[in-house]
Amino acid sequence: MSNLKIWSRVPPGSTLELSAQSATAAFDARARFLDTNETEEVWQQEDLVPGPKRKRLDFPGAVRIAISFLSAQEQEVELNARIVKPDGRIHGEPYRETFTGSQGTVARATIVIALQEQA
Amino acid sequence: MRYVTKNLVLWALVSLLVALPSAAQEATCKPETIQQLWNSLMPKKAQNAVADNLKKQDEGANPGDLENDASKKSFLPFLRFALDRLGVLSTDQNSFSVSQRIDLGSSPLELNVQGKIQEPQIYEALKELLPEDNRQSRIDDLLSDLEESDDFTLSLSANLRNRNFGRDLDTYGDLFNDLWAEEPFDGAVALAQVITEITSDPKIPDIDESTNLCSIQDEAIRRRLRNAVVRAAQEEAAAAESLDKQLKATRLSEFYKLVDNQPQLHLTSAYRWRDKLLGPSGFSAKLSYEHGFANVNRLRKRYGEKVTLNEYSDYLSDPTTQSLLEHDDRLSGSIEYQDDRNDRIVLPGDGIDLEIGQGRLLKSTLTYGRSLLVDTNRRVLSRIDLSASYENVSNDPLRQDRGVASVTYSARVRDPWFFTVALNYANHAKFLPESDREFGAHVGISYNLFSKEKDN
User: CA nearest A109: which of A84, A83, A82, A79?
Assistant: First the structure.
């Protein structure tokens, strides 16, 4: 299981798309975005599920995601993230990871977004 | 010869000097990806610590372990079962059913439809009338003429789910957010900045989590990147551990218990088609209500709609709340309606002419239950349930209206054995013309097939 994703040389003005979904699990997903310009946002369940939550990227930044599992039985939640460049193409490899847990488990993931420095 | 030897030594020395820096670099750069470095800094239990703690807290604490737990009619397990197996067939030894949840979008009603085929069983009243000397062979004869599908039930159940009813865990997120939003998060942002600066050099390849740190030739840059990864990972590890500790300290992990005590309103209606040899066909409906006394509604009533973590923690630490949660006090009530179709079983060879399905039944029940003894592992050792019901029967000359009160005491003798005593009082017997008042007592020892201790 990979709970770290790094993108580098992301063109400024690109958009991060982040979503969480599960066919069966009851879960709560939260994400916290912070960048070097001190922009801080907390994205709630309703932003991420079904999502995607979109965030324009103008500064290097990071997203911390926490998924609280609420089902009594062990269930899976899939986290998806990708960077859409200003020209509409996808930057690098999208992030797709499945987290497994049951009631009380909190799965965490960190996304690091390094931007392409403008000349 | 001496000249050749001297040159050879010189050549070897020069070769050694040339090779040393790259050897030194090989020795100082341990091949590892950023992901591997990140993972190595995470505490092993970081991801699962909370789950492990919850599991430990919950082991043996399930009051449902205790049999005859009449007041604890939690629909949650059934709903979870249904939700987890949408439209999936299920079978057991005596029945075969298929259920499907109906999605009503944003409606507060959750609907579930189920079709169930049960293994045919001859109607009890008919069995009693069959000649005793060859009863079993007659039962077998009668069953051999029946189809597998001769006992079919179609049911529709509705569960009310809104802010005050039902057992959704939606509000968990708000409280969890209070904890989580305070975690430091600068390290990951600093890492993003470092990678942005490093990759401004076109000679540096793209960096992602699978990048091997040794692939960065410049030692200073490599060290800078490594330090940034280490700082971010250490911060994440500390945050995960801190969250785990705070979840325990604030008892947030017990939040689901408040949710499990939320009021529930559940309606089930069903029509059962049976061959008359199996009993009357008919319609039945049941409206059920249940709640525990320490619940999310009480929490909101005390602190308002927006509950802070401190307020939540205070509520959970309140001795009254703790007592209610520990003893799992529950109140439940139901109104049940049954209307069987009139029919007649005529078996001339056996001299049987039996009217079935006469009358309608309206039954209301109120039950209160409390666990009396709970051990240090929060396992219920004994529980008492008080129940009162009233049956209103119409159009049935054989039955009469009556009220029934019962007390059921259940105790865990030694897993998996349970001891149960039930005392019943009815102001009338069920069937006329028996005595006007009726006392009953049942004492039993039961064996729990699903006891957890047996597995240990």
Answer: A79
Pairing of strands A75-84, B282-292: unpaired
Identify whether B263 is preceded by a cis peptide bond (ω within 30 of 0): no
Which ipTM value was assigned to this complex? 0.95
Rounded distance, CA B57 to CA B34, Å? 36
Place of tokens 């709640």: B291
Task: Give the whole-angstrom CA distance, residue B96 versus residue B115.
Answer: 8
Sheet holding B360-374, edge to edge: B89-91, B95-102, B109-118, B151-160, B264-274, B282-292, B330-340, B360-374, B380-394, B402-414, B417-426, B438-447
Which domains, from first to last, does chain A contain?
A: 4-114 (2.60.60)
pLDDT exceeds 50 at position A37:
yes
Is the pLDDT confidence value at A119 over 80?
Answer: no
Higher pLDDT, B169 or B403: B403
> Distance (Å) from the C-alpha of residue A46 to the closest C-alpha of chain B?
11
CA A99 to chain centre: 13
B46 CB neighbours in chain A (<8 A) are 108
Output B308 or B432, whichever has higher pLDDT. B308
Identify all chain B residues contacting A28, using CB atoms and an 8 Å cutoff.
169-170, 172-173, 176
pLDDT at A97 over 50: yes
> Is pLDDT of B412 > 80?
yes
Q: A106-115 and A4-10 as β-strands: parallel, antiparallel, unpaired?
A: parallel
